Amino acid sequence: MFLSTLGTSKTHSSRDRWHSGWWFAKLIMWPALTIIPFLLPSSIIHLYGEIAHFGAGVFLLIQLISVISFIQWLNECYQSQKDAERCRVYVMLLATTSYTVCIVGVILMYIWYAPDSSCLLNIFFITWTLFLIQLMTSIALHPKVNAGYLTPALMGLYVVFICWCAIRSEPVGESCNRKAAASNRTDWLTIISFVVALLAMVIATFSTGIDSQCFQFKKDENDQEEEEEDGVPYGYGFFHFVFATGAMYFAMLLIGWNTHHPMKKWTIDVGWTSTWVRVVNEWLAVCVYIWMLVAPLILKSRRQTTSVT
User: In whole angstroms, what is the distance from residue 158 CA to residue 171 CA?
Assistant: First the structure.
């Protein structure tokens, strides 16, 4: 689907009809393409598993850029409202609530996942997350950046959530992971959590797939007018590319990012590899956010230097 819809720019074209229609053919192809992998040699499946490591990483990168772009878009919407005084109150309330949830989340992680001083790795993860929140806030509030309170507060929520997911992915046998040890049994709550996690991933994949605009450069006014007339509403190729990498991400979650790692029934994203993937994703998200804040200043100074020379 990615190769057949890549570069589609006009509605009512043959590739647009293929993307939006042909459901009878797709319903026949779907079960066929689902059954075929079970008939392939295991070496091909292992090869896909190695490729899926890279594809899942690409999906995580696309997703975090989409999240950061949404946070900045939300901040711009609040700043562009006509009733600036009322919006300022809303921004302060939302930012204060976000910072409060961040602090409560950090405290709970210390209680649940760092019960004693021997849990050095978890203490490092949590403390470093707290430092990253402070770093993002300091840079966002710098007079030259002036990004406000809202974006670092929402990014703080995002990195605290990723940190919690990372520590929660640690193997159940670890003494520092008391929450996992307390729930070390398969019951209806475990199954519900598994299903909710899958549904959340489907929603995240779909929303990221249709958000191709945050990865595009600014266009001319003539191009925008032409796009409004008969242009496609979103990038079809990008949409299917995100779903392909999202499928690879699903595969990595179900095997704990390790093709040789056995997974317990009804568990998802558990293992040390999963933990470190989450941690690196958190650090990368902070780096991307900080770059989005300081990039305009760096590029502006370079233009000024170039014009002077």
Answer: 23
Q: CA 241 → CA 17, 41, 200, 246, distances in Å?
A: 18, 25, 19, 8
Q: Is the pLDDT of residue 106 over 60?
A: yes
Nearest Cα neighbor of 178 from 167, 192, 191 is 167
For residue 177, report the phi and psi dihedrals to the nearest 5 degrees.
Answer: -95, 75
d(CA 286, CA 139): 11
The candidate with the shortest Cα–Cα distance to 47, out of 238, 243, 251, is: 251
Q: Whole-angstrom Cα distance, residue 197 to residue 188? A: 14
pLDDT tens digits, one per residue of 176-193: 766 555 555 545 655 665
CA dihedral 41, 42, 45, 46 (to 10 degrees): -140
Residue range 141-169: mean pLDDT, rounded: 87
User: Contact, 234 vs 213, CB < 8 A?
Assistant: yes
Distance between CA atoms of residues 245 and 63, nearest Å: 11
